[in-house]
Design a protein that fits this description.
With about 300 residues, this protein is mainly beta. It is about 10% helix and about 65% strand. A 10-stranded antiparallel barrel has the order 1-3-4-7-8-9-10-11-12-13. A hairpin with a 2-residue loop joins strand 10 and strand 11.
């Protein structure tokens, strides 16, 4: 249901392709772990629901889209420069693989602290097909330019279980994401004294508060469904705009304390930025499959 929501929300082939890849991966996991189905099960529920600590670590394979704009002055733009597409215009890779991890600590009967981390960086050089404006400089068409971008996310989320039953729990909470976004372009620019080589870079980082919910369901002692959705839409310096961080997936328990799983993760940032090192706009999306191993105790 959540995957269909994102497909309709964006009407984007990339999202649909990632959803198809995710479901294909679930089939592979099911077939690969079928040999465990007849094993003796020593517990009644999936350990995610009755363990105090949970730690997942794996690889996130996102398709990414980065459309960014930075201006070199605090003055308002009478005619804002267009967003620079780091994928199509600057030939930056639009797919990536990166380390990712999640951690949960459940304390008390209903409270929990949940954390997430991933980062994605890339750089490339290409011949510009058209002029590109960045930080008040115009990098000339027909010249070779280098460009790069980076995105780092660290999530802290304090949750409260609203409805907690033996085989599922539903909760809400609040927290913040510490985001770090960076980008640079290096190449040939036109100046009054003629073409010169120049490099301009921008970066911004700050905590971004959010609210969210989660739902976990134990289908059996070995299979569990886990989903969560975080959202932000407000004006919190230096950001003004919208942020989404969502996940849906399954986990298969190989032993009492150890399991494997696959999630479909979706992260979107669509904001205006007015920071000391970045004034402009960010439209970034990271969506794809996250495969991991998990420990529960």
């Amino acid at each position: 249901m959540i995957l269909l929501f994102f497909c309709e929300l964006k009407n984007n082939r990339t999202v649909k392709q990632n959803a198809a890849q995710f479901f294909a991966l679930l089939v592979i996991i099911f077939l690969a772990t079928g040999q465990f189905a007849g094993a003796e099960e020593h517990r009644e529920l999936h350990p995610w629901l009755d363990s105090k600590f949970a730690f997942d670590v794996g690889v996130f394979f996102p398709d990414r889209s980065n459309r960014l704009r930075a201006k070199g002055s605090f003055e308002p733009d009478p005619t804002p420069t267009p967003l620079v597409d780091f994928g199509s215009e600057l030939k930056l890779s639009q797919s990536d693989s990166t380390f990712s991890a999640e951690f949960a600590w459940k304390y008390g009967k209903r409270w929990s602290l949940r954390m997430q981390y991933f980062d994605s960086e890339g750089s490339n050089s290409a011949v510009l097909e058209e002029d590109v404006e960045w930080e008040g400089l115009v990098f000339l068409a027909g010249t070779r330019a280098s460009a790069g971008s980076g995105f780092e996310l660290t999530r802290f989320f304090w949750g409260y279980a609203l409805d907690k039953k033996p085989n599922y729990d539903i909760g809400i909470g609040a927290g913040f994401h510490w985001l770090h976004v960076s980008a640079f372009i290096e190449g040939t620019v036109e100046t009054p004294s003629g073409p010169l080589s120049a490099r301009e870079g921008s970066s911004v980082d700050a905590p971004l508060p959010n609210i969210g919910f989660w739902y976990t369901h134990s289908l059996s002692p070995r299979w569990a469904i886990r989903t969560r959705f975080d959202y932000f839409n407000a004006d919190i310096h230096p950001y003004d705009g919208e942020f989404i961080n969502a996940s849906f997936g399954v986990n298969f328990q190989l032993a009492d304390w150890f399991g494997i799983g696959a999630n479909y993760n979706y992260v979107e940032l669509d904001v205006g930025v007015n920071g000391d090192n970045w004034r402009g706009e960010i439209e970034s999306r990271y969506d794809g499959v996250y495969v991991y191993v998990g420990a529960y105790w």
